[in-house]
Amino acid sequence: MGNETVLRIAIQKSGRLYEDSVQLLKECGIDLRNVKDRLRTVSENFPIEVFFLRDDDIPEYVEDGVADIGIVGQNVLAEKDRKVDTVEALGFGKCRLSIAIPKAIEYTGIQSLEGKRIATSYPHLVREFLATNKVNASIHEISGSVEIAPGIGLSDVIVDLVSSGGTLFMNGLKEAEIILESQAVLVARKNLDQEKMAILDKLLFRIRAVKKAKKSKYVLMNSPNDQLENIISLLPGMRSPTILPLAKEGWSSVHSVLSEDKFWEIIEKLKAAGAEGILVVPIEKMIL
Ligand code: PRT
Ligand code: ZN
User: 46, 147, 212, 257: least buried by Cβ within 10 Å?
Assistant: First the structure.
């Protein structure tokens, strides 16, 4: 690509955000070859260079301008407290940062943490949470396997990430309080120059099209002509549904787009209204 401007993006090198981050770039039509075991790679069909880093380092690299943008969990972003802009929530890597206590202990509210020892990898967020709630407790910072801390007598409670809750359960703990809800976000450094901003806008346009498509389904169905008006009224669609005559006399084919949250409800109503042969197809990209 010669001396053309490229946007440098930092993503996790390996771990829970890696697959989804690479997948998102691919769905945006960005070719990334040889991503395995590389520290960096340049796309051949989009002006972007990818850096593979530990997630904890991403906010700092973006703030310092070593990378222009990055994909990182809101939990890491909040803990590191770096000056970067959150540009877009990406909808994957969902989890929560929670207080967990031994199963046998009854949780009676935030005040019951007074004087307790808390093990966590999130000292900054825990300190902030305690201060907000005017609770005094000691924080023991540990970098991994936080969930075993109460069992080995290192702490009374923990603050750690939870998604299914399985890890807590296996360690005899239960979730008592959510401190932060988190998902992966796209962050950008402050004061990106115009050329890089233009590339970021292009990328964002694609990311939003991919996200929108994931939330929608394309549906096709056959409708008796005397029910058409009723069936059309049930379909929100982007503009209005497409109606095509079928070879079979008195029937039409109806095509439309449905959002996932209202999907089943609408399908049931369509069936009740006489729609037949309903086909539901995933949408790859959606540009409005
Ligand atoms: O090497 P590097 O520093 O880059 O990776 P890492 O080991 O620090 O992070 P990694 O790959 O484990 O997680 C990266 C990001 O994924 C986190 O910062 C979160 O934003 C997000 N994420 C989503 C999670 C989870 N879900 C999650 N469940 N990160 C960690 N967990 C762990 C949690 O710490 C606990 O040990 O999974 C366990 C709990 O899971 P459940 O399903 O049993 O509740
Ligand atoms: Zn990490």
Answer: 212
Average pLDDT over residues 65-80: 98
DSSP states of the chain as a string? Answer: -TT---EEEEEESSSTTHHHHHHHHHHTT----S-TT-SEEE-SSSSEEEEEE-GGGHHHHHHHTSSSEEEEEHHHHHHHT-SEEEEEE-S-S-EEEEEEEETTSPP--GGGGTT-EEEES-HHHHHHHHHHTT---EEEE-SS-GGGTTTTTS-SEEEEEESSSHHHHHTTEEEEEEEEEE-EEEEEETT--HHHHHHHHHHHHHHHHHHHHHTEEEEEEEEEGGGHHHHHHH---SSS-EEEE-SSTTEEEEEEEEEGGGHHHHHHHHHHTT-EEEEEEE-S----
Ligand nearest the Cα atom of residue 75: 1
What are the pLDDT digits (tens) for 134-167? Answer: 999 999 999 999 999 999 999 999 999 999 999 9
| Protein residue with its CA nearest to atom 39 in ligand 1 | 162
> Ligand 2 centre from 28 Cα, in Å?
26
Domains and CATH numbers, the chain: 7-92+183-213 (3.40.190.10), 95-182 (3.40.190.10), 216-282 (3.30.70.120)
- Closest CA to ligand 1's atom 16: 16
pLDDT at residue 1 greater than cutoff 60: no
What is the atom index within ligand 1 of the atom nearest the CA of 121? 34
Q: Is 98 in the pocket of ligand 1 (CB under 6 A)?
A: no
Mean pLDDT value across the chain:
94
Give the pLDDT confidence of 189-239 residue by residue, as tens digits.
999 999 999 999 999 999 999 999 999 999 999 999 999 999 999 998 666
Ligand 1, atom nearest to 54 Cα:
4
In short, whether 160's Cβ falls inside 6 Å of ligand 1 is yes
